[in-house]
DNA sequence: GTGAAAGCGCTAACAC
DNA sequence: GTGTTAGCGCTTTCAC
């Protein structure tokens, strides 16, 4: 049996309340008593029972991080930084997988509303609507990371339209003119365009360039092979692009490989730019230019929003936009 | 205020106990009552309070996964698979960062013994000794993933000596003769050799090859740049190696880059093999041959060990060895 | 400044 | 089959 507050109290010859005060660093405890209690705590190896504390206070000190996959969230480094930020604020993080695109439909039922957590951090786009409803119905605050806004939730937003436009600007700056895009969702043509696509279109339009048919390649997912296939297709286009804007770094890495297999040199024959600043892009050959938000910023702000929300449950939903930057590397070096 | 068992009981006109029985799928409940209770649960949106249940049963349904970093554990895919395996067994996973090598010394104090978890999964080598002590003292079972055995803990072991030997065999099979190794710990020379080094030495020795001075390169960490530097050094060696055995994929990726910068072709001039089957190695240029254990196997067995341990706390520590395999890719293609 | 006692929501004996 | 009740370990009024 684990030692409890009572055991410590007996050992230190004080009341339970006093021990509790000492453990929780409350004032109004004489130095002498405090020392005695501390000693008893150490002697008995006392560790507070989290479940009991949670039951009593209603605070678990636990955050749920819901992402498609811990080792491959939408934004590289997000999971890591969330754990760091949470730790520094006294929270611990439980991870839930949303799963692949196809698995997500079932997510609300599977994940239910993670019980026992103080708040949920949702680090994914295309979240099945039932999921957020379930959390909110259970009284668990939700903080959104990225796009897919929800008026009821706090959010640290990414301006993907702007990021896409910045990517295009960068390609234009390096002298590219025939810029194709890879990674739009299959539903894009019929449904509402996603921000990345809007940014892409606007930037291309602003530059006075035209968009040959087929330059906006949709992909079912954002895996290397999706990028590979889309790039192969584009390289066979009668107006072969001189730049590829990829909606995710993985797609871009696949595109790099497709270029190699097609005998094209990057960046000499075709430039490639991605989104997300993944680690593999930093070490690919050539290294990959990417546009990315700072995951540490996102994580820090998200955890800050959580603490604020817990303090004032009824405050209006807050919305912060995280800055992003183009990180120029070899894959878009200007051709001189 | 959230709805409780009592609310549901009142609504369904039964006792608390009956509701509890229904919620926990206990037998001995008439179908009629069961249906009524289910209905009340839905109508009121009841969700069990985890903290209360934990306090009562002593089971939190929570596993702590302690790794250097969620998005970069020792073995690629480990964190992901642990979350999957845990989920399928009804556990949720809270992640703790051990931090970089230098931060680890402070880990026992920082991580303490994560309270409120049923067991700890330790997915790291070079674990500061105090950490395991703290968990065990608190009565929290620990399952080790990988090397660093501890006689008091269950373990899913990796036979790194064998994996290293297999890597060398593979290089020999592809016609290599001057095989250098990158990634031994700096303390290697004085302290006990790690398994990878033993496997390397044995395999080289068995093949009747000699080991020129400097062929065992130590690195402070296992980052790309460490591999890069070690490889650069070896390429300048008077007996330039025709193969590089790297203790981790990251080192190998760094080595690939070093080869490119030095004007060497991989695999024509030098072969490179890594350990861990990282994703970036699958898409590097050339793609990287690697030796790896199956992270899904590791995770599954680890979670199985946890459940077994929780059922019989006093059983003798179990030790399972996970299989591994050489995954041949471009970086070690035979030179014909 | 410290102590006694109530009760958070749940499960498990035990009675019926 | 179902109801009653005690109590898990903690925090928190409320007296003293």
Can you offer a commentary on this structure?
2 copies of one chain form a homodimer. Chain A has helices at residues 5-12, 16-23, 31-44, 50-57, 78-88, 107-111, 129-137, 160-173, 195-206, 224-235, 249-261, 279-283, 295-311; strands spanning 62-67, 92-97, 119-122, 142-145, 154-158, 179-184, 216-218, 243-246, 271-275, 289-293, 319-322, 324-327. With 336 residues, chain A is of the alpha/beta class. The first copy, chain A, folds into 2 domains: 5-157 and 294-321, Response regulator (Rossmann fold, 3-Layer(aba) Sandwich); 160-293 and 325-332, Response regulator (Rossmann fold). In chain A, the strands form 2 sheets. In chain A, strands 2-1-3-4-5-11 form a 6-stranded parallel sheet, sandwiched between helices. The longest helix of chain A is centred in the last third of the chain and has 17 residues, at 295-311. β2 of chain A pairs antiparallel with β2 (92-97) of chain B.
């Amino acid at each position: 049996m684990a030692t409890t507050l009572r055991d410590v109290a007996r050992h230190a010859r004080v009341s339970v309340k006093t021990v509790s005060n000492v453990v929780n660093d409350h004032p109004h405890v004489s130095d002498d008593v405090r020392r005695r209690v501390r000693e008893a705590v150490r002697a008995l190896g006392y560790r507070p029972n989290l479940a009991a504390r949670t039951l009593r206070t209603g605070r678990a000190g636990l955050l749920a991080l819901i992402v498609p996959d811990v080792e491959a969230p939408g934004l590289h480094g997000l999971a890591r930084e969330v754990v760091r930020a949470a730790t520094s604020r006294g929270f611990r993080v439980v991870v839930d997988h949303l799963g692949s695109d196809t698995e997500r439909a079932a997510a609300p039922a599977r994940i239910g509303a993670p019980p026992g957590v103080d708040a949920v951090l949702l680090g994914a786009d295309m979240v099945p609507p039932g999921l957020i409803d379930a959390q909110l119905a259970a009284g668990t605050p939700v903080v959104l990371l990225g796009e897919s806004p929800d008026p009821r939730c706090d959010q640290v937003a990414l301006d993907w339209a702007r990021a896409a436009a910045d990517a295009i600007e960068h390609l234009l700056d390096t002298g590219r003119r025939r810029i194709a895009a890879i990674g739009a969702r299959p539903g894009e043509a019929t449904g509402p365009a996603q921000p990345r696509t809007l940014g892409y279109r606007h930037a291309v339009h602003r530059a006075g360039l035209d968009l040959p048919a087929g330059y906006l390649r949709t992909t079912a997912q954002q895996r290397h092979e999706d990028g590979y296939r889309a790039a192969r297709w584009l390289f066979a286009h009668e107006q072969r692009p001189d730049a590829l804007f990829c909606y995710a770094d993985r797609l871009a890495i696949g595109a790099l490989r497709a270029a190699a297999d097609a005998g094209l040199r990057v960046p000499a024959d075709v430039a490639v730019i991605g989104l997300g600043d993944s680690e593999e892009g930093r070490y690919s050959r050539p290294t990959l230019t990417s546009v990315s938000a700072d995951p540490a910023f996102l994580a820090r702000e998200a955890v800050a929003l959580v603490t604020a929300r817990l303090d004032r449950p009824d405050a209006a939903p807050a919305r912060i936009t995280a800055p992003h930057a183009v990180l120029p590397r070899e894959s878009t070096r200007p051709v001189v």
